[in-house]
């Protein structure tokens, strides 16, 4: 009796499995037959031909050279006085022409002599300006072959030790056209220059 019941259950389970497999197969066929949902867009990018633009660039015309400055140039005096705002008095430094030249030569004695090009005004000492002190300094120096100033020395100062440092600092900034002999620049020693410190009131 036990075998008969087991055999019947086995047949029933087998039948259910076959029926389930048939149902799954039938459902899969219906899914494949349905049309796809949504829209599919294909993008095709075409590269356009790029036009090459050529620019003709013509060089600008060079400016005409300016006329060269004359040989006898006047020295430029650059005034710089940061202490001018410290007092109501205005400051004027008088830089006079060279007093003497070494070896007994004078300025302008020949075409090859040195010429002053740039003379910088000294800075008025703040203490002297506030006290209203005025005076002058005579400085002696050497004009080098490249037109700069070397070895400045105070020859005379009135009053003493007030304007010496300012006068020497300004003298070192002087520029000269050097003396030329046979096409060779030469040093000139013993050049003197008087710098006057005066407050305009």
The CATH fourth-level homologous superfamily of one domain: TonB
Read across the widest sheet, the strand sequence of neighbours is 2-9-4-5
Q: Using the coordinates shown, work out and report the CATH topology of one domain.
A: TolA/TonB C-terminal domain
% residues in beta strands: 25-35%
Strand count, sense and closure of the main sheet? 4 strands, antiparallel
- Name the structural class: alpha+beta
H/E element order: HEEEHEEHEEEE
**In terms of quaternary structure, what is this?**
single chain
CATH hierarchy class name of one domain: Alpha Beta
CATH architecture of one domain: 2-Layer Sandwich
Distance between the termini: 146 Å
Number of helices: 3
Record keyword descriptors for this entry.
rod-shaped, 3 helices, 201 residues, 9 strands, 3-stranded mixed sheet, alpha+beta, 4-stranded antiparallel sheet, TolA/TonB C-terminal domain
Outline of this structure?
The chain is an alpha+beta fold.
Question: Would you kindly provide a written description of the structure presented here, covering whatever features stand out?
Answer:
The chain has about 200 residues and is α+β, with helices and mostly antiparallel strands. It has a domain at about 75-200: 2-Layer Sandwich (TolA/TonB C-terminal domain). Helices cover about 25% and strands about 30% of the residues. The protein has 3 helices and 9 strands; from the N terminus they run αβββαββαββββ. It has helices spanning about 1-35, 125-130, 165-170; strands at about 75-80, 90-100, 115-120, 135-145, 150-160, 175, 180, 185, 190-200. The strands form 3 sheets. The protein has a 4-stranded antiparallel beta sheet, covered by helices on one side. A hairpin with a 2-residue loop joins β7 (about 180) and β8 (about 185). The longest helix has about 30 residues, at about 1-35. The model is unreliable at about 85-90 and about 100-110 (pLDDT under 50).
